[in-house]
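task queued by scheduler; priority normal; single chain, no ligands, no partner chains; default sampling; output format set to structure tokens
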Amino acid sequence: MVLEQIIGLINAVQDNTVLLIVLIVVLMVVAYKIFQTMMRVAITAVLFALIPVVGRLAGFPIELSAQNVLWFGLMGVLFYFIYSFFSFIAKVLGLVSKPFRGQKVKTVVVKEKVVEKEKKDKEKGEGEEKRKDKA
């Protein structure tokens, strides 16, 4: 049953050139995103695997063994996936809560008006001092 549906989908895609092009583009984008993620995972693993090496060179009493280097590399991969998961959750929650957020009030401070206000405040302060001196 499922195999028949897949074959029917393949036949439908073969008959429709536009759908085939769209499918190829979508698959290329997905493949690129997967490649990006795997490269980031690999870079993170290498950087975390270098922690015991750098620590040993810095003089910390860290055992420098293959097991320890692999452990740090795997911990880096784990931390990357945890970060990616929470980043995804934050983006989804941001999109979901966007309609419920109020519009931000934009405040524009014009430097000239601030300077004028400061001058007026100084003049009022001087005027009050002169009145106090007269009294």
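post-processing summary
- Residues 2-102 form one domain.
- The chain has a mean pLDDT of 83.
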